Amino acid sequence: MESLDQQFTKIFSNPWLALILFAWLTFWKGFALWRAAGKRHLVWFVILLLVNTMGLLEIAYIFSLNKWDIDGGRLLTFIERKFSKGKDKKTKK
Question: What is the pTM of this model?
Answer without folding.
Answer: 0.65
